[in-house]
Amino acid sequence: MPHSDDAVATSDPPAWILLDGEAVMEDRQNATIATALTSTGQPVQVTLVAADPPRDSYLCVHFPSLSLNNNKRKRDDDEERQSGRVSLIGSKTWVVYRDGDLALLRVGLPGRHDDYFVYRAGRRPSSHTTFELHVFRSDRATWTNKGTVLEDEVFLSTSKVIALGDGELGWTDLRLLGILVCDVLSDDDPNPRIIPLPKLLPSNRPAQKECRLDREYRDVVVCADGTIRCVEIERVLKLVEVPDVSTADVLRDADLKLRLSRSSSNDTSRYYYRYGGWRVITWNRAVVGDNCWHKCHLVHVDDIVANDPAHTALLLQMGGPNLRLRNLITKVPSLSIHAGNVVYLTWKANSRRDSKTWALAIDMVKKTVLEVAPVSVPESSRFYLACASPNYLKIDA
After folding, report:
1. Residue 115 confidence (pLDDT)
2. Which of 332, 337, 377 lies closest to 60 in space, CA to CA?
3. Domain contains 396
4. Tally of domains within the chain
5. Burial class of residue 198 (count of CB atoms within 10 Å of its CB; 0-12, 13-18, 19+)
6. What is the pLDDT of residue 26?
7. Which of 87, 244, 303, 372 is spaced 20 to 30 Å from 393 by Cα?
8. Taking Cα atoms as reference points, which of 60, 41, 47 lies closest to residue 115?
9. Residue 394 counted as domain residue
10. How many CB atoms lie within 10 A of CB 291?
11. Residue 199 DSSP one-character state
12. Is the residue at 342 inside a domain?
């Protein structure tokens, strides 16, 4: 699906954006374009395409001297190595972290080490290639090695990094550990501490042992009001006991078909799982001086209403008269950094037949659908970062 024209802001920049965690390999140019050189001397340009939520914003990365295909390997490997040109097949660029108008990008090129770039809209970015933790001090204009801050017994699989203020960054493990907080501006001990996250909802707990991306069902943001907020979406699975047919006087066809669709005829299991829709839960806590999470809202899809006729018409168009909100394939929950009670989700009507991905804004207090918008890039594995949009930013198409 081509990029939506709605993804481009025209005059005033949005107050905040939902930034796609994966950049797009595309030559896109506007007032936010910045250029730099890779570690091998190849030019690279980065451009921000911004839009008001729930529409997604994304970065476009372009390598003018590199090829998007291998041209059937017309040149031999020696010539390609000497020229420094490589194929971009399989290469990806990820947004590791963003704060204000700065974004840390990890650019992976096939057969090479990753390059790291600090991107600032409309300015020349600095680059740094490393696999160690470094801290950049703008007052000193230098990178310094902070050393190892993790204890041996602590296992951390970082999903994202958040800024908690006063020089503290939080390396967030959405699945297991929680948030590892360090004071990266301290010249001495970074004073690491752990903020545990709420336990996963029941149906998401098996995901701890699976290869499912944790960002598909959970997110954490730091809001402007000094709170940390956590959101989680769960596909509700209800454990149902298979009745003993000897105790029934009537056997309904619907129950028999449901049972056969889940097991073979010789299955002796007494239980099976029945889909019960999906639900969203939000939590918050203060960044400083709080030692517990407070539940904000827990909303089941059956309690959410779509009052806008345009939203109802869209659901009818996407999935026919029988499509309901509970049947949507929803994932990637996101929150605004300006607090509020709105949760943003991506959804599809059908995972196999539907090539379009949509964004959904839900008011958790009023339990209503606020807005529905197309996602610019359709891949279902994408995730987004809630971040502030610089006030000075003026974006031209």
Report:
1. 81
2. 377
3. no
4. 1
5. middle
6. 84
7. 372
8. 41
9. no
10. 7
11. P
12. yes
Place of tokens 């890779």: 38
- Tokens read off for 253: 């066809």
Q: Which residue has the tokens 């090539």?
A: 355
Q: How many CB atoms lie within 10 A of CB 166?
A: 9
Note whether 226 and 286 are within 8 A (CB). yes
Q: Which two tokens stand for residue 36?
A: 């730099």
Q: Which two tokens stand for residue 125?
A: 């970015």
Residue ranges of the chain whose pLDDT lies below 70? 1-12, 66-91, 100, 109-113, 122-134, 146-156, 207-211, 243, 254-269, 319-322, 339, 350-355, 377-385, 387-397
Amino acid at 302: D
pLDDT in the model for residue 288: 87
> Which 3 state secondary structure label does DSSP give 312?
helix
DSSP state of 289: S
Distance between CA atoms of residues 220 and 17, nearest Å: 15
232 Cβ neighbours under 8 A, 6+ residues apart = 198, 200, 201, 204, 217, 218, 280, 281, 333
Which residues make beta-bridge pairs with 271? 241
Residue found by looking up tokens 């729930």 in the block: 54
| Position 378 in a domain | yes
What pLDDT does residue 171 have?
A: 87
Structural domain boundaries, residue 361: 5-388
Q: What is the structure's pLDDT at 217?
A: 92
